[in-house]
Amino acid sequence: MRSADLDGNAAGEAAQAAWAHVEVSRHPDRPYSLDLVQRCLDDFIELHGDRQGGDDAAVVIGLARLGGQPLAVVANQKGRTLEERGKRNFGMAHPEGYRKAQRLFTLAGRLKLPVVSFIDTPGAYPGVAAEERGQAWAIAQTLEAQLALPTPYLAVVIGEGGSGGALATLLADSVLVLEHAFLSVASPEAAAAILFRDAGRKQQAAAALRLEAANLLEWGIADEIVPEPPGGAHTDWDETARLLRPRLEARLLELTSRGFDPARRRERYRRLDGLFSA
Amino acid sequence: MAISPAYARPRTVDSGFTCGACQRTFPMAQAAGSLYVCPACGHHSRISAHERVRQLADKGTFQEWDADLAGRDRLGFVDTKAYVDRLAEARQRQKLPDAILTGAASISGHPVGLASFDFGFLGGSLSTAVGERLARAIERSAAELRPFVCVTSSGGARMQEGVFSLMQMAKSVAALHELVEAHVPFISILADPTMGGSIASFAALGDVILAEPKAMIGFTGARVITQATYEQLPAGFQTSEFHHARGLIDQVVDRRQLREVLGRLLAVLGPSAAEDARRPA
Ligand SMILES: [Zn+2]
Q1: Which domain holds residue A187?
Q2: Does B2 map to a domain?
Q3: Which segments in chain B show pLDDT lower than 50?
Q4: Is A157 on the interface with B (CB under 8 A)?
Q5: For a Cys-Cys bond, which of A1, A60, A258, B102 suits B115, CB 3.0-4.6 Å?
């Protein structure tokens, strides 16, 4: 066998492995944010609205407790039934969703509540109305709000973490990623369309982007990979929550007990790629 | 965060400069004199980062910062071509280490920190090196109390740097916090195009946001929106004027007036204003 064939096979295997990862993260039976919020947090109370005229159901905010600690919660929410998928817009927020998240950050700062975010979105909604109402501005302001948040902040990527829409609730002091979740600059389909002018080459794009969760740990973007039940989170929601809850508790305790300083969060994202010395 | 579809580009031929919109040809000297704005139809051609600095900075005042700051191919990325080869070609062609030029300058006598994106360098996309040079320029402007002026012309993320490109949105916004704390103003100028991760981070956070006429600005490109939603696009969708009408951009400014408008803004916002704000009441 010629070496080119070997390379071709290796590339093919890498593409298949990367794509399998994406498919598990998008499995129709995978637990969504509220499924895990209900299983991992206590006394969840949902709040509604951005207080500017909108209440985007693709983003859920609320209050809860974890091990006695009161929390503010923000989550991307996907729908499972046909009707709920429409209502939740497949977890893709409009500007009102990002403004709702900003409202939650403001509330958390005022009441000195730590924030926990659950990330599971293909990305910000790519539509005319979203653009008309300032989608890019809404995301930018949410990035700013996260980096100004004066309280401890924990994020967990539970499924898809698509581009700027995911980043809007990711810039935390501690970032956990479920074993089969991913974070990417663009969906593999969009990346393939841009790179190869062919959305069908999504598997190849997924491999090239190296979007498996384990890489995020190696690169310092994630602090911890949280294991899922064998086969993936869709096989057992209760077990998934049983594995996740103690990690949330431990990370939160670490953040709340160490003399918290939000400037450290800005420093983390300023130096993240570690390629340049100061 | 795709690079927007091909927009009218200038074509330079030996005999002159051809407007990418109306196709009329003008002598090079005349085109340069009108700052590459078409004397016939007003179309604003894309210009290089070096040309932008020539147009905005007072003659002889530009002092480049971080001229050698270059990144590398972190992912070993190959699409239809190896990323290292794309980078090498762009560096050669654009005479820049990556898609941004930064430095100190004066504009109408006012000292500023100045950043200019270079669309000709891989679509002005956000690499780690671009994000780093931008962040350093922001921080140095804050430290030296120089109002920060950034002219963006960027398709958004650089796919070849994957999630590292995405994280430049966070890096730039983290750096902008220094300007906030120093009470130093940020004037963001949106040139054609300003898309995806660039407008959804630093470029949308200017204290004052200006845009050149008919620049394409938006989070998701029109082609992707049409493919994803089959929606009918309204007239003038995602132009500067479209966003200005919706309260997202302060002023649409003709390139030939840009220096003057900046001079008037800086006179009001200049370093003395920052010093006043820092002084305890
Ligand atoms: Zn013309």
Answers
A1: 3-255
A2: no
A3: 1-8
A4: no
A5: B102
